[in-house]
Amino acid sequence: MSKFVYLFSEGNAKMRELLGGKGANLAEMTSIGLPVPQGFTVTTEACTKYYEDGRVLADEVVNQIYDALHKVEALYNKKFGDSNDPLLVSVRSGARASMPGMMDTILNLGLNDVSVEGLAKLTNNPRFAYDSYRRFIQMFADVVMEIDKANFEALLDARKEEKGVTLDTDLDANDLKELVAKFKVRYAELKGEPFPQDPNVQLLEAVKAVFRSWDNPRANVYRRLNNIPYEWGTAVNVQSMVFGNMGDDSGTGVAFSRNPATGEKELYGEYLFNAQGEDVVAGIRTPHPIAHLKEDNEALYEQFKQVSETLEKHYRDMQDMEFTIERGKLFMLQTRNGKRTAQAALKIAIDLVNEGLITKQEAVLMVEPKSLDALLHPGFDQKALKAAKPITKGLNASPGAACGQVVFTAERAKEIVAENKNAKLILVRLETSPEDIEGMVIAQGVLTARGGMTSHAAVVARGMGECCVAGAGEVLVNEEGKYFTVNGVKYNELDWISIDGSTGYVYGEKIPTVEAAVSGDFATLMQWADENRALKIRTNADNPRDAKVAVNFGAEGVGLCRTEHMFFEADRIMAVREMIVADNEADRRKALAKILPMQRKDFEEIYEVMGPRPVTIRYLDPPLHEFLPHTEDEIKELAKEMSISYESLKATVDSLHEFNPMLGHRGCRLSVTYPEIAEMQTRAVIEAAINVNAKGLNVKPEIMIPLVGDIKELKYVKEVVVKTAEEVMAEKGVQLAYKVGTMIEVPRAALTAEEIAKEAQFFSFGTNDLTQMTFGFSRDDAGKFLEEYYTRKVFENDPFAHVDQNGVGKLMKMAAEAGRKVRGNDIHLGICGEHGGDPASIEFCHAIGLDYVSCSPYRVPIARLAAAHANIKNPRK
Amino acid sequence: MSKFVYLFSEGNAKMRELLGGKGANLAEMTSIGLPVPQGFTVTTEACTKYYEDGRVLADEVVNQIYDALHKVEALYNKKFGDSNDPLLVSVRSGARASMPGMMDTILNLGLNDVSVEGLAKLTNNPRFAYDSYRRFIQMFADVVMEIDKANFEALLDARKEEKGVTLDTDLDANDLKELVAKFKVRYAELKGEPFPQDPNVQLLEAVKAVFRSWDNPRANVYRRLNNIPYEWGTAVNVQSMVFGNMGDDSGTGVAFSRNPATGEKELYGEYLFNAQGEDVVAGIRTPHPIAHLKEDNEALYEQFKQVSETLEKHYRDMQDMEFTIERGKLFMLQTRNGKRTAQAALKIAIDLVNEGLITKQEAVLMVEPKSLDALLHPGFDQKALKAAKPITKGLNASPGAACGQVVFTAERAKEIVAENKNAKLILVRLETSPEDIEGMVIAQGVLTARGGMTSHAAVVARGMGECCVAGAGEVLVNEEGKYFTVNGVKYNELDWISIDGSTGYVYGEKIPTVEAAVSGDFATLMQWADENRALKIRTNADNPRDAKVAVNFGAEGVGLCRTEHMFFEADRIMAVREMIVADNEADRRKALAKILPMQRKDFEEIYEVMGPRPVTIRYLDPPLHEFLPHTEDEIKELAKEMSISYESLKATVDSLHEFNPMLGHRGCRLSVTYPEIAEMQTRAVIEAAINVNAKGLNVKPEIMIPLVGDIKELKYVKEVVVKTAEEVMAEKGVQLAYKVGTMIEVPRAALTAEEIAKEAQFFSFGTNDLTQMTFGFSRDDAGKFLEEYYTRKVFENDPFAHVDQNGVGKLMKMAAEAGRKVRGNDIHLGICGEHGGDPASIEFCHAIGLDYVSCSPYRVPIARLAAAHANIKNPRK
Fold first, then answer.
1. What is the pLDDT of residue B226?
2. Strand pairing partners for A270?
3. I want to staple B805 with a disulfide (CB 3.0 to 4.6 A). Which of A503, A809, B809, B815 is the partner?
């Protein structure tokens, strides 16, 4: 029989997969002698079993829960549902990976009509007991039975009105007792059965509710964003209650062992006396900074500080802790490695190395590559900032600067971005809740009126590396009216504002932002990363501006320069169109001759920025109709401009129409049918290289033929390229080293890579197209059903965000192996799809032995770090 | 050093790959002592080398040619270019596979100003000598130097006019001598250099011309149609000339050892006295039937008959022979296995078995599966035929009946079919030439005014299994005027006519055609095929009519029943549209409920035809927008019909628009997003099966989920199917055996087949989509560049016609192996793409161990035979 339930005293930190993060750490704290209210963990395997069994709690799991419960009762000499000294418990989720706020929690479980009296007696505080009971009924109804809590809040409000008071605290024990009765009546009305008095029933229902919550929509979205498999399941922690709301010698708080925003080595956090944990986290009351505890109760402060240091040394990382003080006694409710800003992560990692606690490699692994994104986001333009005046100030909850148009709901943000994907938005909320996650993903930044540094908005924003100003109390939000006011000034939906998550300032205007640079701690850690990686990092750049940004971020070459982007530029689109409408080779060549000098200049400029670093140039890829207009009016206008007849231009547009443009006449197919295009591009590539080399550079261009599916396609185009290159070199009397390779982006190219490698000097995996063709769905069209796929758990991950290792990855592996089989290490292998900037995909690229990844300029540092992670975890021989 | 040149006396029939078919057979005939004018063969490897060396004849090849030439000179004691007894040779192509008329031939090579006199002396016939010389100049100029022969014909005509005569034969030796002088002047004018007098130069130029002709456009088209690799190259045969035009004791002819139209055991062919081989093949003069030779010269006839029998026994197959009689002496110029009609092929194969010459397995291999197509084509409806009266009669050159609209050129045929792919056409030509091949492919049948049974039209039509009436002399064709007349009656382009290739009758009207049946020799051979095959043959059928045709042709099940075809039928398209515009599940279900009884009836009817044979039903596949109109007017009309607003219907149409419909919301993706569709289809499949089984049948439906790319998609849909099936069976109180499987048509399905096999009880390869996605081009769009690909030899084969074994086939093999790894022989493997009816693809399917192929009803016998071929060549363990 499997063991599905572990007492805290039976586990340890290594059992994270089985016990979840929270459970494993509660066990670990227990084992190192810290004060932890005892309890037990129902394992993740029990959760998996629950789902496998059709959402049923198996008898053996139930029995093990009862056994564990009895042991906890014995430990504290308390009884579940007892009229004198009742055992009360909290029931909390705890997955392998932290998913803050995504799943459900039930407190005070075990209260019923009998034990509430026991609690009253024990605490000598009937008001407290009945307040706890009415909170429990409400929470149980909400979380376990899915009854809207508004039903109960209405009763509470009615009672307050009756009594003519406004605060909950103005209600006395009798009021609350009456309310409990009313709550139970309402519960029975809505549920069709009475509120369960048996604590065992309460417990099993609560455990099931937590298991169920693993599958709620926001948990599914969070997992998808954070790449957490559905199969993992969650554990459930059942822990005896301690109360921070037993009076002024009680309290509760959360704290970090170092500052999670800056990384400073100082206790950092907040607490509230006479409160429950929820009150701190939800940001409803504004708590005191942890340093204040020293004044309130120095002994307790020192004890907590001691615990914090013990935990940090034990875990060799900064800790995020929850504690409760019950009648002057400290209890640890949770510890975990704390989430932190990227800036803090860098400082902490470097400090821990300096403190001798961890190695450089461990420091590199400690910084999540994705988190660097925050450091790479723009800050305000300093000159513009000087001219600007903040309208108010909140907490600097997540650093970085953002400028955007105001929206008040996630739904509205989604609508706006659906219309204009370049829209820049700031999500403004009274306080955020897990439902807002999608809106936060879309927005450039988040501004909340309420909540502290550990409020939901702050925690989540830091996790995403998104700018956040929290608890800006002067901001009065009117969500219905779609406006907010600050000191009487009204800001409407879509008005521009700017926020600075590093200072907390809010500006009622548009302030330009500027780019970040790699320096200080960031530069130190990147240097350690570079010392530890095997993959080279290149960038996708189509112009000198992007190339420059990338070089500043450490790019070691251009992995993808898309020449068609240049074709769209205003000064040459007309020549491109002339080429397309040409109905014979001579006219096509005439038009191409006009493009040549412009294209040559493009390359010269990029070569000059890249200096000695390799530049991979991809030849024209999109179908030609993309360069022509499609509506009647536009065609008429262009025909006039080009001095050709409407009918003739319309005929060209029609003849180029494709049913499936993605599967049409594009990529190398263009060069096979119009070799003169490849000739012109080769001339531009080679002439530009010879020109800049004459100035002392040593450029070695790499010519990349797209969409090859058969060796003969590559061979045909390569012959054109080589012939033209030889001609140019002969004309100039200069020899130039260059390479000709191919993208592997058609499944057949991967399948026949061994043949293709005979002609290709390098392979670059175009994983965007490869993903589309391997799955058989286009990115543009898949949006319509992929949402349903996520909802129905048919897919958990977006294959366009992370390389699909089972399918697409298998093709990549085959092709890489085939390439090396033919050319040994002489073949250069890279990736230039958008996956090249995704840490999980980079790890895969490392594992299959690619030489480099190429990503957008802003992703270069992330890729450098991810490549280091990959190599530290799985060193390349 | 490689041997690039073989004397006829050095080779044999087994050296076909090296010497080509013609060369190998000349050598073989030499070795068995038949009278063959001696010579030598330049190998196919020399051709390959010629192309590899950049279209240059290497010195070693040239030297070996000279060596061989000297040996032939010694053998006959003649000299190249001699003034007394000159050696003259023919230079002919000869590939591994016969490519009649596709490549070039030069006769009388070796003639120059000196040797022409030698020839005149030797034959004592100056007229003959100068006629040969002027023909040679013309042929050399045309074939080797690419000078239009019209240049010379104009001179010839001028001379005849000058002299006031109309026939070539009215010109005497002096006329011809003068013409030779004029020809040489014209040649020098056009070519800028004199006509080469050195026979060695003539020879090398001619050899190169033959090599070059391997790459001419019509050869490339022929190879593509016949699946002959470009890499093979052609050999060149240099053979000493014998002359059939040396007077009335000379002649030339072609003959078959059996009747190539019917298979009767009789010498069959034609000859002409005082003529060259060309005159017979080109169909310019009408030759005598071979039987007539007995009267002309009995001894010669008997000698030839003896040779024919010897060859047939030697090759154990019907022979197609060319011979020349020079001054009463018989020479064999060629033998090869003769092309024949399908009907003849069957009879010959069966007769040869009965004669004890070959085994049944050899007989099966002797019939080309594709050729059966001719027997499966419609014949005329006998009743209609009785009422019809032929307008004229030609030769019954290739059997079968055809009815279509008149066209006069291949170009026009292509235009018409581009506009209406269902157009039925009859190509009417004075005589056909290799340029007409594409038109012949498109047309239902060919009618020519000139030419015999061995004319180009007749040979090619038989090869294609296409109906042909040749040499219908009463048909007066006016190509320019786009009409023909028969006895004064005019038939214009696009008028309907009917032709019967089995009788030679031509009808000036539309006569309905009827289907063929498998009986007699056909049935016998099919039985032998069935005894020898491992693959089962199923059919693709969407309705009882097709299913019935297929069963009559021997189909053993339905491998693909496309349910969407049923959705388009007039009685249900409206309900389908209601389902699509429904914006909620309830309305969708309401519309589906209307479709259910109709779909159930569809299945019942098909089940009843198929009886105990398995029926594989594919669930709805196309994107929903295919069921809706797209133009404004149509949308308006439909909106009215459906009583909904135009705006609302337009919005639905717009929302369903896809950029790449092939990669869009279709296949199982529809069932994932709208499981109620799969529910309805399951209900129809299962209810129908239970209903017909109640009548005593034992139907076991196979439900096929399309476009699966991930195990979870299949799992999701399968759960819906199983749940619904269980419900239906519970309602009916009946248990029913059924299977659920998937198509493998997305590359990722093949790559992850091992996972998918856990849920799929069968795999059916959908090679149409698999080909599109593996190559990354859609069939609809690829047409635009594939033509260029063929021209530039980037592709030689249409991957939609023959499975691409290197790419698509690799995926199929992987998937088949993975499927068997998981389920052993319990997994059923089939193919239902159009490749299922292609013999080369069937051979591949056999090799990778599939259980069945499924093809269109008319391809079933072809598939049965191809499957037998595959298994005889490569027996399955």
1. 79
2. A254, A289
3. B809
Task: Identify which has the larger pLDDT, A804 or B432.
Answer: A804
User: Active site residue: A456, A835, A846, A869, which one?
Assistant: A456
How many beta carbons lie within 10 A of that of residue B295, not counting itself?
9
At position B152, the amino acid (one-letter code) is: F
Backbone angles phi, psi at B803, to 5 degrees: -55, 130
Does residue A474 come out as left (phi exceeding 0), alpha (psi in the -120 to 50 range) or beta?
alpha
User: Sign of the C-alpha dihedral, residues A547, A550, A554, A559?
Assistant: negative
Residue A235's SS3 state is: strand
CA distance A547 to A555: 8
Kindly tell me the number of DSSP H helices and DSSP E strands found in chain A: 36, 33
**Disruptive mutation site among B630, B669, B715, B769 for chain A (greatest number of A CBs within 10 Å):** B669
- State the nearest Cα–Cα gap between B73 and chain A, in angstroms: 44
Confidence of residue A276 (pLDDT cuts 50, 70, 90): confident
Nearest Cα to A258, choosing from A163, A340, A170? A340
Amino acid identity of B320? Answer: D
Are A869 and A364 spatial neighbours (Cβ–Cβ below 8 Å)?
yes
**pLDDT, tens digit, for every residue of B814-847?**
999 999 999 999 999 999 988 999 999 999 999 9
CB A741 within 8 A of CB A702: yes
* Number of A–B residue contacts, CB under 8 Å: 166
For position A232, what pLDDT does the model report?
92
Mean pLDDT in residue range A305-330: 95
Contacts for A111 with CB less than 8 Å, ≥ 6 apart: A86, A88, A119, A132, A133, A136
Q: In one letter, which amino acid is A162?
A: E
The confidence score (pLDDT) of residue B29 equals 97
List strands edge to edge, sheet with B475-478. B475-478, B483-486, B489-492
| Crossing angle for the helix pair B520-531 and B342-354, to the nearest 10 degrees | 70
Sign of CA dihedral B749, B755, B760, B761: positive
Distance, CA of A865 to CA of A779 (rounded, Å): 28
Cα–Cα dist A37/B795, whole Å: 74
Given this model, what pLDDT does residue B224 score? 82
* Residue A93: predicted pLDDT: 93
> For residue B824, what is the DSSP state?
G
Give yes or no for a contact between B314 and B32, defined as CB atoms under 8 angstroms apart: yes
> How far is the alpha carbon of B621 from chain A, nearest alpha carbon, in Å?
13
- Is residue B183 within 8 Å of B155, Cβ to Cβ? yes
The reported pLDDT for the residue numbered A721 is 98
Is the Cβ pair B664, A781 closer than 8 Å?
A: yes
The band of A588, judged by pLDDT with boundaries at 50, 70 and 90, is very high
What is the structure's pLDDT at A641?
85
Taking residue A361's Cβ as centre, other Cβ atoms within 10 Å add up to: 18
Distance CA A344, CA A339 (A): 9
Residue A282 has pLDDT above 70, yes or no: no
Asked if A339 and A101 touch (Cβ cutoff 8 Å), the reply is no
**Measured between alpha carbons, how far is B501 from B401 in angstroms, rounded to an integer?**
6
Q: Give yes or no for a contact between A687 and A736, defined as CB atoms under 8 angstroms apart.
A: no
State chain A's mean pLDDT as an integer: 92
From A68, A67, A75, A107, select the one nearest A88 (Cα to Cα). A107
Out of A832, A835, A846, A869, which one is annotated catalytic? A832
pTM: 0.81
Query: What local confidence, expressed as pLDDT, does residue B570 receive?
Result: 67
Averaged pLDDT, A128-136: 92
Nearest by CB to A709, from B662, B712, B775: name it. Answer: B775
Q: In chain B, which residues have pLDDT < 50?
A: none
Asked if residues A503 and A400 have their Cβ atoms less than 8 Å apart, the reply is no
Answer yes or no: are the C-beta atoms of A648 and A581 closer than 8 Å. yes
Question: For residues B526 and A545, what is the distance between their CA atoms, to the nearest angstrom?
Answer: 71
